[in-house]
Amino acid sequence: MTGLIFILLLVLFLPFSVKIIERHLEVFLFIMGICAAYIGGVLDSTLFMKAVKDPIKITLAVLVAGVLFKWLKVPLEKLIRRISEAVPYPLFFALVVIILGLLSSIITAIIAALVLVIIVSVLRLERASEVKLVILACFSIGLGAALTPIGEPLSTIITSKLNEDTFFLFKLIGREVILGILMMGIVAALFVQPRFRKTKLSYVNETEPYSEIILRTGKIYLFVMGLTLLGAGFEPLINTYILGLDANILYWINMISAVLDNATLAAAEISPSMTHETIKAILLGLIISGGMLVPGNIPNIISSGKLNITSSEWAKFGVPFGLITMVIYFIAILGNKLLN
């Protein structure tokens, strides 16, 4: 058990503190996954084949969506410009947040984030407004992508670990997620000011090469494969230390998802032995707090990187908004318990 705890600490803190590991997170998690599975005594051909198969769907989705995005980038930019000129800006902001959030479970969180980058590069909002729009959209994308196994690695890992069908997560948290996405759209309409300046967020509007699409696809495959191995290896740790914790405690503990990738945390925490109530609390805690800071989720990392949004700029709006959202959801969870 000591070995698994040591690996868990490495997985949680090294990507956040060591730059070279942060840049090559997929390889690091794959190696840690093999180590965890070996120490946990579960590394066999069955698990390895499962780790090989689990990433296939999301990897294909990322590849196909990436190629389509490359081909349709120019007409998409023209369409965005026309729509933004045809409808009131508050409505446009709301639609951006809501539509990207809902579509992210189909087109993947990565592609949704790339579309978001194009949208804000077409608009000429002042920096503060653009940053708010990006953060709200990333919160929405993070929520929506959790509804299907192809949306993001977190949902892929949870569905796989629980051995559930494609629509399990939608049935489990669909209502909460859709309401949250709508709420974020309303917030965008109310609080993103349509103020325009000549300067905008720095973004080089160039076509993404096929090599980058293939590289990103390979990274996603290795990432999910590593998380599958990690999840299986950490099972003894989960059974000993996490299964007995109250769902409400787990909800707030998962605020660490703000600084740590939520898919990694899901692999370390989720177990088939948990009740649906506990899984729901863990999942909501992960996907909400994942939007607070840049490292918390893939859309945050992509958007901030391409648009040069600093960590402090993100935190200034992301943390208070995330905390308020966490409280609202927590009250809703408690209310649902009382009603049931």
TrEMBL record:
UniProt keyword annotation of Transmembrane present: yes
Keywords: Membrane, Transmembrane, Transmembrane helix
Transmembrane intervals: 27-48, 92-121, 133-152, 172-192, 220-243, 249-270, 282-302, 314-334
Record-given protein name: DUF1646 domain-containing protein
Natural source organism: Bacillus yapensis
